[in-house]
């Protein structure tokens, strides 16, 4: 398994690769802009060229772009629906420019919509985005914890979305370990992991799984509360992650950590812990 972190783009994309290397990353994930706003500033060409130079020969692969937090295509009635679709369009385009093979999106909140209405809104939004952008970037749907009115916390919901999108072959899944656990899929035991993978295979298919977000959970099984925590220090625990990173159906996947951080030291600790669990590096 190739490990990495979500990396800050503060001071530009040119600094991303260096930050990743300091953390001993083999794969990376980052935003293409400020994740807490809607504004897309033009990409700086000098910064972009410096990023491309640093990425070449770095060995970092795959590269994942993550859609910012605000877009929500699960509620068609929201005044932000069209803007959310536009954000996906822009980030699909930017992903190619930034040499990212994947774009990850949160499926969204249904708000006052029914689950069926929300699923259809998501499918329509993705269809609209794909109609405007035709490239080789794979769009990954990230499972959720089911907090509030989130959809995508059950594998069946993700399956239904993928089945209705016209260009479904351009879709894949990012499985977040914390979100899965918080949604009720027990990853803390061998038996629970096997049941979870069987459920995933029966509904979505493991061939559609392209990425693991490796995060421990600060809240108990089925809490429906999204709280990431340090590897081995939450409810999934060291034994849970040992089972995950060594499982023959998962060991080939990249694993990105989105664990809490105040400084680089915490990232280095999480990287050391996750690597120590690999039995046949």
Fold and architecture overview:
This protein is an alpha/beta fold. It has a domain at 65-257: Divalent-metal-dependent TIM barrel enzymes (TIM Barrel), CATH 3.20.20. It has nine helices and ten strands. The strands form two sheets. The chain has an eight-stranded parallel barrel. The protein has a two-stranded antiparallel sheet with strand order 8-9. The model has no long low-confidence stretch (mean pLDDT 97).
Please give the structural blueprint.
Layout: E1 2-6, H1 16-22, E2 27-30, H2 45-55, E3 63-66, H3 81-97, E4 102-106, H4 115-132, E5 138-142, H5 155-164, E6 171-176, H6 177-182, H7 190-203, E7 209-213, E8 216-217, E9 228-229, H8 237-246, E10 254-257, H9 264-276
Parallel strand pairs: 1-2, 1-10, 2-3, 3-4, 4-5, 5-6, 6-7, 7-10
Antiparallel strand pairs: 8-9
Gist?
This protein has a domain at 65-257: Divalent-metal-dependent TIM barrel enzymes (TIM Barrel, Alpha-Beta Barrel). It is built from nine helices and ten strands.
| Strand line-up across the major sheet | 1-2-3-4-5-6-7-10
What's the N-to-C terminus distance? 8 Å
Runs with pLDDT <50, length 5+? none
- The CATH superfamily of one domain is identified as Divalent-metal-dependent TIM barrel enzymes
The helix-and-strand class reads: alpha/beta
Over the alpha carbons, how many angstroms does the gyration radius reach? Answer: 18 Å
Name of the top-level CATH class of one domain:
Alpha Beta
CATH topology of one domain: TIM Barrel
User: What share of residues is helical?
Assistant: 25-40%
**Mean pLDDT across all amino acids:** 97
| Strand residue content | 5-15%
Shape: globular
- SS elements, strand count: 10
Task: Indicate the CATH architecture of one domain.
Answer: Alpha-Beta Barrel
H and E order: EHEHEHEHEHEHHEEEHEH
So how many helices?
A: 9
Main beta sheet: strand number and arrangement? 8 strands, parallel, barrel
